[in-house]
Specification:
Structural class of chain B: alpha/beta
Number of domains of chain A: 2
Radius of gyration of chain A: 22 Å
Number of helices of chain B: 3
Helix content of chain B: 25-40%
Helix content of chain A: 40-55%
Order of helices and strands of chain A: HEHHEEHHHEEHEHHEEHHHEE
Number of strands of chain A: 10
Number of domains of chain B: 1
Largest sheet of chain A: 10 strands, antiparallel
Strand order of the largest sheet of chain A: 4-5-3-2-1-6-7-8-10-9
Largest interface: A-B, 27 and 27 residues
Order of helices and strands of chain B: EEEHEHEHE
Structural class of chain A: alpha+beta
Oligomer: heterodimer
CATH architecture of chain B: 2-Layer Sandwich
Shape of chain B: globular
Strand content of chain B: 25-35%
CATH class of chain B: Alpha Beta
Distance between the termini of chain A: 13 Å
Chain lengths: ~350, ~140
């Protein structure tokens, strides 16, 4: 994870009102939290789609569990299961990717091609047949999941198999849920888009990525999800990540440059070389860049002893931050991060720049 | 005379607070990660400023956080500063900073507060089951 790739990700997700990607182990906890995240953050005009979206996310998630041929893994790698939900314009996309044994591909492909070509009444007929057990297969349900996905979205299921070895392939699938009331008429985002994101997420060792509105009310559900997902790592590291995530995200919601009244931003959690990495990116007003840069350079250039002294002075004085000096949160971050606070400013136009930051613990 | 106690129920971003002079209970427990910590703690600080004008002979302030953001930490530091006044005037004061075993971050925050505080200050591991029987002996 680098400050530069954060901007790359931002550009890839520029059109997304909200998006969430996840790579790694798939438990029901993760599922509950992701569905909640979207329930809480879906725009009002798409409210009627909420339940349907939750249903489709659950189906997609369980489909990964049903079809994935992944062996035991201690940490995620480039063939780990991948799950993504994104809202672009008036359409929601639910994307899944998982390893599958090559000898199973024809069966899965047949099921997908079938649901993708049937019309509404044929689908209903197939649905009833499957429900009355006329067709059954050992993987639970003769593709009932696929049938439901198509029935609920009234759309197709784009899919792809990318061969990674003589034995296995990555199986990508995308569910597209369009809001019929507010249809923007835009062509759907291609599955290739998601494949590109999956490859980059894997390459950068990212476990979790969220792009959206970082206003105070939007940060809450995101934090709850991160917390839920860190239950299996040591208390010390878990607390640290959560603590600094709160600090960084609150800083974004306070200081980022709002575009269309939203504090747009992106955040990532990754795991690389035995360290957890946090990366964030957001816009910042052009006239604040110099000041922020000075603060960051200032804390980065100090020794731990100097930072400790600064920290205690601030604590003793108990003053809230005045502009122009690094706050307690930033001093603390500089003390605790392994190495230093990495950052980058990329000028977007004369009004604002993109600010990305990475730290590791 | 005893001022009305302050009792604040815990919420998603703010801790439980009980400041009760009559029963000698002074405690802040839970999660304090509000962005507007200054606003949240304002009435608590006001209460403490009144309290230290006529404090109990002994004041044990129990602080037990699972998460604490930096703006809340500043406020907690402020509250301890106010309590120092009672201590400087010859009253017994003790700040008890509790943390969960293995939670280095909260433990270290307590150590920092201890370094900068003039009042007697202890940091100790918190055992959830001990909480109900919580009582700290001043003279032990």
């Amino acid at each position: 994870m680098t400050t530069n790739t954060i901007y790359q990700f931002y550009r890839l997700l520029e059109k997304d009102t909200i998006s969430f990607s996840y790579r790694g182990s798939f438990s029901n906890n993760v599922l509950t939290m992701v569905t909640q995240l979207f329930k809480d953050n879906v725009e009002e005009k798409h409210e009627r789609l909420r339940n349907k979206l939750s249903f489709l996310m659950i189906e997609s998630f369980q489909n990964i569990a049903r079809y994935a041929d992944t062996g035991e893994k201690t940490m995620p790698d480039e063939t780990s299961e991948f799950f993504m939900t994104r809202n672009v314009g008036d359409t929601f996309y639910v994307i899944s990717a998982n390893l599958i044994d090559n000898d199973k591909i024809p069966t899965v492909k047949e099921k997908l091609d079938r649901v993708n070509t049937l019309d509404k009444s044929e689908l209903n007929k197939l649905y009833r047949e499957v429900l009355t057990n006329k067709q059954i297969n050992e993987k639970g349900g003769a593709g009932l999941g696929f049938i439901e996905m198509v029935r609920k979205t009234k759309g197709k299921l784009p899919y792809d198999f990318v061969k990674i070895s003589p034995e296995q392939s990555m199986f990508f699938m995308q569910i597209e849920l369009r809001n019929p009331k507010t249809d923007d008429g835009l062509p759907p985002v291609s599955l290739d888009d998601a494949k590109q994101i999956q490859a980059l997420v894997a390459q950068e060792n990212i476990l979790m990525m969220h792009k959206g509105d970082f206003s105070e009310e939007a940060v809450g559900p995101m934090l709850r999800m991160v917390e839920e997902n860190m239950q299996n790592i040591s208390l010390k590291v878990h607390k640290k990540i959560f603590h600094f995530l709160v600090e960084i995200l609150q800083n974004i919601s306070k200081h980022s440059y709002p575009i269309n009244n939203k504090h747009e931003g992106i955040f990532q959690i990754g795991y690389e070389n035995d360290k957890f990495h946090i990366g964030t990116g957001n816009f910042i007003a052009a006239n604040e860049v110099e000041n922020l840069k000075e603060q960051l350079d200032s804390v980065n250039s100090k020794t731990v002893e100097e930072l400790n002294e600064m920290y205690r002075k601030y604590l003793r004085e108990g003053k809230t931050t005045k502009s122009g000096s690094a706050g307690l949160g930033l001093i603390d971050l500089a003390r605790e991060t392994d190495d230093k606070i990495n950052y980058e400013f990329i000028k977007v136009n004369d009004t604002y720049s993109f600010f990305s930051l990475t730290v590791k613990f | 005379m005893n001022p009305e106690p302050i009792i604040i129920e815990p919420a998603a971003k703010t801790p439980e607070i009980i400041f009760d002079k009559k029963h000698g209970v002074f405690q802040i427990r839970g999660r304090s990660i509000s962005e507007n910590a200054g606003e949240f703690y304002q009435p608590v600080k006001e209460w403490m400023k009144e309290y230290v004008k006529d404090p109990n002979p002994e004041t044990k302030l129990l602080l037990n956080f699972d998460y604490l953001n930096s703006s809340s930490l500043i406020q907690i530091s402020n509250i301890i500063r106010i309590l120092e006044e009672a201590y400087n005037n010859g009253h017994k004061v003790l700040v008890i900073w509790q943390y969960e075993e293995g939670d280095e971050l909260i433990e270290n925050t307590g150590i920092e507060l201890n370094i900068i505080s003039k009042v007697p200050f202890v940091t100790e591991i918190y055992e959830p089951e001990d909480y109900e029987n919580f009582d700290f002996d001043f003279d032990a």
